[in-house]
Amino acid sequence: FTLLLIYILIKCSYLIIAICQLILMNYFLNNERNFTFYGWRLIKIFFNGEAELANRSDSQIFPRVTVCEVTIRERDSAHANHFHSFNCVLTLNLFNERLFIVIWLWICLILIPLNAFDILKWIMRTIIFESSSNYIFVKDRLIIPFKKSQEYLIRIFVNYYLTDDIVFLLHLFEENSSMMETISILDTLWKNFRNI
């Protein structure tokens, strides 16, 4: 089970990284420092009747309006400089805020639940299914005429030739491609085993 254990540890590290990213993003973007999550706060603002997030002007992290000071020099006069101050709209901050909302939603609604589900799925497969399930998995996918006399040979093939790690890789391969590809790989492995 070494490959399975490494796979589960990698999936756990993905989950920890996603949670840490969510916490760090919240710490960076939450200007009130009161441990409410940034995304939830914006979603509540949006669903409480404010139709556009662009109408909000209280964002200290992504200010939408700032004061711009411009010096204008007269054409004919070398010493007459005029200073003008006016409001500038920072449109890039509108885009940045929405980008961070999308990233926050991606982490919160997709990365964390999918990684948690995948970890639980593989842990349940490990706990519930034993080596007998490996035998059933391989036997169902072998393209050979099954005879009662071959059952012992198939068990040797599964337990000693393939081992748990190879069967785990076959499970992963079948999840990410198709059953037909797994059958063709198993058929090749079976032929190699028979030629030993």
Structure report:
- With 196 residues, this protein is mostly helical.
- The protein has 6 helices and 2 strands, in the order ααββαααα.
- It has a two-stranded antiparallel ribbon.
- Strand 1 (65-73) and strand 2 (81-89) form a beta hairpin.
- Helix 1 (2-29) packs antiparallel against helix 3 (91-128) and helix 5 (151-176) runs antiparallel to helix 6 (179-194).
- The longest helix is centred in the middle third of the chain and has 38 residues, at 91-128.
- The two termini are 25 Å apart.
- The mean pLDDT is 80.
Briefly characterize the structure.
The protein has helices at residues 2-29, 38-47, 91-128, 131-141, 151-176, 179-194; strands at 65-73, 81-89. It is mainly alpha-helical and 196 residues long.
What proportion of the residues form beta strands (DSSP E)?
5-15%
Number of strands: 2
Characterize the biggest β-sheet: 2 strands, antiparallel
Topology order in helix (H) and strand (E) letters? HHEEHHHH
Which spans have pLDDT < 50 for at least 5 consecutive residues? Answer: none
Please state the structural category. mainly alpha
Chain-wise SSE layout:
Elements: H1 2-29, H2 38-47, E1 65-73, E2 81-89, H3 91-128, H4 131-141, H5 151-176, H6 179-194
Antiparallel strand pairs: 1-2
Helix pairs in contact: 1-3, 4-5, 5-6
